[in-house]
User: Fold this.
Amino acid sequence: MRAAAATTLFLTLCFVRPDRHDGNDVSDGDFKNDKAATTKGRKKQPHIIFILIDDQGFNDIGYHNPSIKTPTLDKLAAEGVKLENYYVQPICTPSRSQLLTGRYQIHTGLQHSIIRPSQPSCLPPHMDTLPQRLRQAGYATHMVGKWHLGFYTKECLPTRKGFDSFFGSLTGSVDYYSYGSCDGPGVCGYDLHANESVAWGHQGKYSTTLFTQQARKIIQNHDPSQRPIFLLLSLQGTYWEGGVRGVAFVHSPLLRRRRRVSKALIHITDWFPTLLALAGGNVSQSQCLDGFDVWGAISEGQESPRHEILHNIDPLHKAPEPARARQVPESNSVFKKPKKTKRKKKQLKPRPKQKSAFKSSKKLNSYLKARLKRPKARRTAVPEDNLSLTPAKLRSQLKSKPSVANAADSLSPAGETPVWDTSIQAAIRVGDWKLLTGDPGHGEWVPLQVLPTLSGRWWNLERAFPSLQHGPITEATKSVWLFNISADPYERHDLSRTRPDVVRQLLTRLGHYNRTAVPVFFPPDDPRAHPDRHGGAWVPWMDRDQETIYKKKVYPGKKKKKNSKCRLCKLKAFFLKLNTGIMSSRITDSSE
Assistant:
C-alpha cells in the first residue's frame, strides 16, 4: 500500500582520495581512473552515509508530489538512482532490526509489535550486525538519532552492537524538544544519550537540528585518509503507521548508470550484504542472511536477485477461536479442514504458550534456547516437494492462469495437503502477487482525539480484534486476501476466490519460511525499568546476573511447578501409584 511509508532511505556512497583532507568527492573520471587504486595495500572502500527517516509518506517528497518542497533531496535523487520498488516494515523496531542484521524478523524473535521502553528485549546477542562487520572491514562506525532496538542491558546498546559512537535516543517515541519518552501514563523519562551516558542539558533544542549538527561534526572530524566511515543518521518521523513501500534513493559516483528510476525489487534486509560487499567484507561469514546483494541492480540496472519478500509471520496476532474455522475462500476446495481424529488423552507435558502457524507443527523450543542457537527446522504438514520450490519455479507456475481443470489437478498433489492457520497475521509477496492472512487491517495507530478516552494502557488495543465477528464469512471476517500489486498497487481488488492456485502456492511459501522461524520474544514489562528509579532517565536496568535471574523467573522452561494449594494433589498422586505398567508407559510416551 502506498499511503505512507514506514522508513525512508537516503544513501550516499563516495570515495575520497587518500591524499585529500578537504572531504570533496572524486569525479566520475577520477573514479574510473582510480578504480584499481589501493590505500596502504587495501582495496579502496567507499564512505557510507545512510539516512533513515521514520514514517515519511510516499508522496511526502518533491519528486513524488510537487506541493512538497524538498529541493535538496530532489536534486540528490535526480543525480542518482531512485528506488521505486523498495520495501520496508510498517513499524520501527522490525525495520531497524532487519536493516542491521540482514535477517527477517521471524529469525530474530521480533515478529510482534515493537520493543517497548520497559520490555527487557533487544537484538539477539549471538547475531552479528552490519556495523560490526563494517568495523571488522576497517570502518569507523557512528550512529546518530533513534535506536529503538532495546537497551535493558548495556550489551544491547548501539556501542555494544558495532558502533564506535552513538548520540541519540534509545526508545521509540521521544519529544522533539524535551526529549521525554513515555511508556504509559506516569511512566516517563528523559531519553537522550551520548555513547553510554545520559546527555543532559539539551532540552529546548529541536532534535532533527541537533542530530544533523552532530552528524556534520562527525564527518568534519573524520580523517578520510586513515579509514572509511559508516554513518547511520536515524531521524524520528511523525508517528502514524502506513504501508511498506518506502521512499528511497542512492546518490554516489560509484553508480555506473545514474539519473534513472529503478523498478528492481529491493527489501531493507538487502542493505546488509550489499553494503558489506561494497566495503570489501566477506558476506559469507554472516550466516543465514535473508538479504541479497542488489548493487548490480542499483548501479547497472541488472535484474534484482530478489523476487519475493516475506513481510512477516506473527503467531501472536491471532484471531479468536470462532474465526479459525473460516480459514480460506469458499471456492477453494483445497483448504479443507483436517479430518477429526480421536481426542488424545491429556499429556503431562505442558503446552507452549505460543502456537505455531501450522496445526501439525512440533512444539516450539523455549526462547532462551532459540536466542543462543537457531532451532532446527520444524516439521510441518507441507510436502517436501512443495517446500523445495525455488522462486524461479514458483514464478513460472504463477505466470499463466490455469484452467479450472488444471487448477483442480494442481491443488491435489501426492502427499499431505498444507494446512495453514490463516487466522495468524502473515503476508508474503512473490513476483506481482501479494498474499495476506489473518487480520491485516489491525494496526497500532490511534487518532489523537481518542487517546484521552482510552481505558488502560493504549497499546493494549493491539490485542483486540473488533473486525472479527461470529457468523458467515464476510469482508469483515475473511482471513485470506490476494492482490496483484503491479495492477492493483492500492490493494483494492481481492483475487483470492478467482485464483485459488496462486493462493495455494503462496501459502506453501509461508510454510517454507515458517519452518525456520524462531519463537516470538515479547516479554512482559519490567517495573525496574521505570525512570524514577534511575534519576529520571531511561537507561539500562539489568546487569548480566540480574538478566539470568529474570529469564529463569519469567521463562522457567519445562520444569513443572508443584501447586501447593491444590487440595487434590495427594489424591492424584495416590491414583497415579495404582496405575498399571501400561498407563506408566503411556505417560512416558506422551512426555517424549
